[in-house]
Amino acid sequence: MGDLDDGPDQAPLPAEQVRETAAGLLAGTGYNLILTHGPKGEYTRHRRHAECCQAVVELWRTGGIDTRRLWLFAYEDGGRAYLPRVDEDADRRDVLTDDVYLEKRGLMTDLYGYEPDSWEARTTPREEGFWCFDSAQAAVKRLAACGVVS
After folding, report:
1. Are strands 66-73 and 30-36 parallel, antiparallel or unpaired?
2. Are 148 and 39 in contact (CB under 8 A)?
3. In contact, 64 and 19? CB cutoff 8 Å
4. How far is it, in rounded angstroms, from Cα 2 to Cα 95?
5. Does some domain include residue 133?
6. 58 is in which domain, residue-wise?
7. Number of domains within the chain
8. Which helix H or strand E contains 133, and what residues bound it?
9. DSSP symbols for 11-42
10. What span, in angstroms and rounded, lies between the C-alpha atoms of 126 and 122?
């Protein structure tokens, strides 16, 4: 998300600013696969994650980025009723091996500095879920089904 505000009290950003930031990070290179945030931000509610998703899908739709495939994180938290988990209709689900999970969790605690019992560390899932797309039109359709207009 570049240097965009990612703090807990996020004000909405202009869509163009988010698109320009994402384009600056991704433009000029062709990718086989891009993974990014989901249309509702993985949990209720991470505004910047949702804005990032919308920007990447829109850039793909308009040719602003070049990728063969796009995967969006597919998590939900029941409106904050429980920690984020893979959405039931995810296209792909992967359970991480112990080694990979420990490395992922180490990124949260050692690199990012979150305490092991923090919300951020507790929401680091062992199971990953994605909605997977081979075309921008399919990704736009998914955002629309989630009530997100890109």
Report:
1. parallel
2. yes
3. yes
4. 28
5. yes
6. 15-94+128-145
7. 1
8. strand 127-133
9. PP--HHHHHHHHHHHHTTSEEEEEEE--TT-S
10. 10
Give the pair of three-digit tokens for residue 108. Answer: 């949260």
**Which one-letter amino acid corresponds to residue 3?**
D
pLDDT tens digits, residue range 8-63? 677 888 889 999 999 999 988 899 999 999 998 888 778 898 999 999 999 999 99
Strand order in the sheet with 127-133: 30-36, 66-73, 127-133, 92-95
Residue 105 maps to a domain: no
135 occurs within a structural domain:
yes
**Residue pLDDT, tens place only, 98-129:** 999 999 999 999 999 999 999 989 999 999 99
The residue to which tokens 């920007």 are assigned? 55
With respect to residue 34, please indicate whether it lies within any of the assigned structural domains. yes
Q: Is the pTM of this model over 0.85?
A: yes
Residues 6+ apart with CB under 8 A from 145: none
Q: Tell me the chain's radius of gyration from C-alpha atoms.
A: 15
| Cis ω for the linkage preceding 85 (within 30 of 0) | no
